[in-house]
Write a structure and sequence with these properties.
This protein is mainly α and about 350 residues long. The chain contains ten helices and seven strands. It has two domains: about 55 residues, no CATH class; about 220 residues, no CATH class.
């Protein structure tokens, strides 16, 4: 029922957006679904919640810019907010927005530290995670030695699953030192995937900059944890003929970077695609200019939105699973396996001699 209400609210919001009076020079243009979709899934310097006949419900976020020689500028984005249908907004203090990019009117260099919609969403999700897991930790302290209660009972099976089925199986005996990162990545992606499905929320997991940082963190942790056997496999791959070794070295080195790259693209593409499909179905009403197609588009939109609930969890699990596999490959102690095999062979030989 809550998912249906979310879709209906989004549908009504887009309906009002599509039927707002156009500017004098735009009356003949009509509804532009591509522009609307990009507006809803992209980042911005303001947080638009809802549009009604009486006005827009918008939260204007702070602009923070540093220009060498001119100092720091701090003001509300309302001063340079883009007008309806305009690519470039108003000018203030020598700054303006050009397709949501903050630029200097005189072309001088600037450093943008503004709190955008995605940054605000990131801060909000971080606060939410802190509240949730501080509460879980408090529950463990209070219920030590007893059955979990409340929110603790919901998250404990998930945490145990990540520990036993992901970390232990892929990393091995050294799994404990990587549990904080794996749990943080899993819940960060899952929480933000779910938050991104609510109307008006920031599309944080669908921002390639966010997924890139997560992938880079996985790459850094993997390389920092790697041992000599990991690098020996890359620069002296076992079983490869010497004439082919230079080619394999190139392939293995490229593989170091393609693995986190695939993590970045997979998460970004799957989350963004889900939002685009839902908004595309809703746009059909305004493309055909008929409410007759509304039941069909609403049904398909609801189906995709419910499917996105599964995708939200699945993508968090896949990212965490692959991360643990990459770390496990870097910390694996191959000589332990060789020693065990040698010990087994010696024991069998001694037993046969006896």
């Amino acid at each position: 029922m809550k998912r249906l209400l979310s879709i209906l609210l989004c549908f009504v919001s887009l309906s009002v957006f599509a039927n707002e009076p156009a500017a004098e020079g735009e009356k003949a243009e009509g509804f532009n679904p591509g522009e609307m979709i990009l507006h809803h899934i992209g980042d911005s310097h303001e947080w638009h919640w809802l549009a009604t006949d009486t006005g827009n419900f918008t939260t204007y976020l702070p602009i923070i810019a540093y220009r060498p020689g001119k100092g720091v500028s701090v003001f509300s984005s309302e001063r340079i907010s883009n007008g309806e249908g305009e690519a470039s907004g108003k000018e203030y203090d020598g700054l303006k927005l050009d397709h949501e990019k903050l630029v200097s009117t005189d072309g001088s260099k600037l450093y943008d530290f503004s709190i955008t919609k995605n940054v605000a969403g990131l801060i909000g999700s971080a606060i939410l995670m802190l509240v949730v897991f501080i509460s879980v930790a408090s529950g463990y302290r209070k219920n030590h030695g007893r059955a979990p209660k409340g929110i603790q009972s919901f998250f404990e099976p998930i945490i145990v699953f990540i520990r036993d089925e992901v970390a232990k199986k892929n990393i091995g005996p050294k799994y404990e030192r990587y549990m904080p990162y794996l749990l943080t990545v899993f819940f960060f992606i899952w929480f933000n995937n779910l938050l991104g499905l609510t109307p008006g929320a920031a599309n944080l997991s669908g921002n390639i900059a966010v997924t890139m940082v997560l992938a880079l963190m996985t790459l850094v942790i993997t390389l920092a944890s790697s041992n000599k056997y990991y690098w020996a496999h890359i620069f002296a791959t076992p079983g490869v003929p010497k004439p082919l070794l230079p080619i394999m070295i190139i392939v293995e080195v490229i593989g170091i970077f393609t693995k986190p790259f695939s993590l970045m693209i997979r998460l970004f593409a799957n989350i963004t695609a889900g939002h685009i499909v839902v908004l595309s179905f809703i746009s059909l009403v305004f493309i055909f200019k008929s409410w007759a197609v509304a039941p069909v588009t609403l049904a398909f939109g609801l189906f995709i939105n419910v499917l996105e609930l599964l995708v939200a969890l699945l993508q968090a699990f896949i990212f965490t699973l692959l991360t643990s596999m990459y770390i496990g490959g870097a910390v694996e102690e191959h000589h332990d396996a060789d020693m065990q095999i040698g010990y087994s062979d010696d024991s069998e030989a001694a037993h046969a001699a006896h």
